[in-house]
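Predict fold of Glycerate kinase; 436 aa.
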Amino acid sequence: MTDASTEASEDSKTESAAGTGTAAGTATGTDTRTRARTGTRTWAEGQATPPKRVLIAADKFKGSLTAVEVAERVTAGLRRGAPRGGEGLRIAALPVADGGDGTVDAAVAAGFERREARVTGPLGAPVTAAYALHGTTAVVEMAEASGLRHLPKGVFAPLTATTYGSGELLRAALDAGARTIVFGVGGSATTDGGAGMLSALGARFLREDGTPVAPGGGPLRDLATADLSGLDPRLAETETVLASDVDNPLTGPKGAAAVYGPQKGAGEDDVAALDAALAHYVRVLEHAVGASATSATSATEYALAPGAGAAGGIGFGALVGLGAAFRPGIEVMLDVLGFPAALEGTDLVITGEGSLDEQTLHGKAPAGVAAAARARGIEVVAVCGRLSLAPAALGNAGIRRAYALTDLEPDPARCIAEAGPLLERTAERLAADFLG
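Predicted 3D structure, encoded as tokens:
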């Protein structure tokens, strides 16, 4: 694993940041009891020594800024807003991700090598997908191969989109020598239960007449037999971690089709068809998993496990076919990126993402960053494009204050268009509050 934080000298920008950033505004804070409970320090309230080392550990602002760009803009604003131009202040950047979009970029910013492969996209056409490699550890992001980003604008294929390319990307990582794979899932265009991924890795899914089942989740209704015995034997020697911020089961009212299908263009009838097809898929796999005798866990149990419904059910495929272990995405990524080491000597952590809302509290990057920093007694503040959490909720999550972009510019379209300059202005205010 690599410690990814890169420090800026007293008069330089953060080396790992590049691009243009976002965020902004009015601060909301926790009460005194929260601060006493967490043991964090609050320089903004008049303590004698302002922080000398700041760690920026923010996720992307989706639709406007990458995590690296957020770090660069915050760095620029902090230096302008800090006393004496930030003399004596050290700023480190550790872009983070929770397993979804941007996970590979965060790993590359941390020092992993970016690798690319031509794979099958969700609609069947070839796409170029990236993964990150450091030694024998690979970070593979399913959205690179099978994500919504590969669909033309306004075009969805809820019944037929395939994860075949995700399997090809995993195979590329194995070919490169990876024996530990962090498989980040999120941002998918698919709801095929990972059948496409497993097919690319050697599994066979056949109709009654012995022909392969067509790509996508809908055709799984025609599945008659499944054979996992041909899966790449290297998988048995590889530690695969399923990294996701989603703990939904595969099927049912909280399953992959019901909860996430509409985001991928599935109408009411499509959702019902997909859920039924996935349930049938589980029943067929029950026999295949039993016959393989490679796991004491049944396919039905895997389907109910946390993370099985992640990314259109690719979580289920990873659990049942790859022997993956589920862990919250941000928890895994903080370990991979070297966050514990980056916290050494840090006085203030700045985290954030595009929207701080209820979802943030359930496994998103800012909550994970804040929890880890709070455990070390380090103050945490956040920047975001939009804020919908009350001060008490922020405090319970370990976030001292949050600064929202919309406090400076209430028009969402302008917030997105002018994200970088607004974030720099926000960071200036944060510097005045916490670095003075």
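Residues 1-43 have pLDDT under 50 and may be disordered.
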